[in-house]
Task: inverse folding
C-alpha cells in the first residue's frame, strides 16, 4: 500500500508542478483599434486625422484631433505635452469616444518628412458598447505628411 501511495503522491506532485509552471494566459483586450488614414498637420495649431480602423469589438470610420498643450506642434527633435481625442463609429449606431488627456507629442525627422508621434493613455468617455465602459489603455497616433497611423488597445 505504501508503494501505491508513493505513486499517487508522485502523480499529484507532477500535475501540481505542471499547473504552477504553466504561464498565466493574458486576457484578450476588450478594445483593439488599428488603421491608416489621412491627416492635416498645420504649421501652427492642432492636427486632425481621419481613418478607417479595424478592430474589436467594432470597426469603422474614425475622426481625431491631436492638440499640443501650448497650441503649436513641437519643432523637430523636441517633445511636449498634448491631448488626443479619437471618435470611432461603425455607421450602424455603434461607437466609442476615447480621450488621452496626459500624453506627449514628439516631432521626429524622417527621410520622408517630419512625423508627429503622440503617445498617451486613453480613457473611454462615451460608448454604445457596455463592455467598453471604464476601459483605458495606450493610444498611439503617428502623423506623417498627410497620412495617419493609429493604434489603441485597452481592457
Result:
Amino acid at each position: 500500500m505504501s508503494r501505491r501511495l508513493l505513486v499517487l503522491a508522485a502523480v499529484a506532485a507532477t500535475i501540481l508542478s505542471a499547473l504552477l509552471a504553466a504561464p498565466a494566459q493574458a486576457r484578450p483586450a476588450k478594445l483593439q483599434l488599428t488603421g491608416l488614414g489621412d491627416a492635416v498637420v498645420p504649421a501652427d495649431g492642432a492636427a486632425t486625422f481621419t481613418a478607417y480602423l479595424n478592430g474589436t469589438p467594432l470597426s469603422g470610420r474614425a475622426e481625431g484631433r491631436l492638440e499640443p498643450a501650448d497650441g503649436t506642434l513641437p519643432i523637430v527633435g523636441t517633445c511636449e505635452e498634448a491631448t488626443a481625442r479619437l471618435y470611432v463609429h461603425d455607421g450602424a449606431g455603434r461607437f466609442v469616444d476615447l480621450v488621452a488627456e496626459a500624453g506627449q507629442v514628439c516631432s521626429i525627422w524622417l527621410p520622408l518628412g517630419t512625423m508627429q508621434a503622440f503617445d498617451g493613455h486613453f480613457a473611454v468617455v462615451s460608448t454604445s458598447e457596455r463592455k467598453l465602459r471604464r476601459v483605458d489603455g495606450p493610444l498611439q497616433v503617428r502623423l506623417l505628411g498627410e497620412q495617419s497611423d493609429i493604434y489603441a488597445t485597452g481592457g
Notes: The longest helix spans residues 2-21. The radius of gyration is 23 Å. Residues 5-14, 16-20 have pLDDT under 50 and may be disordered.
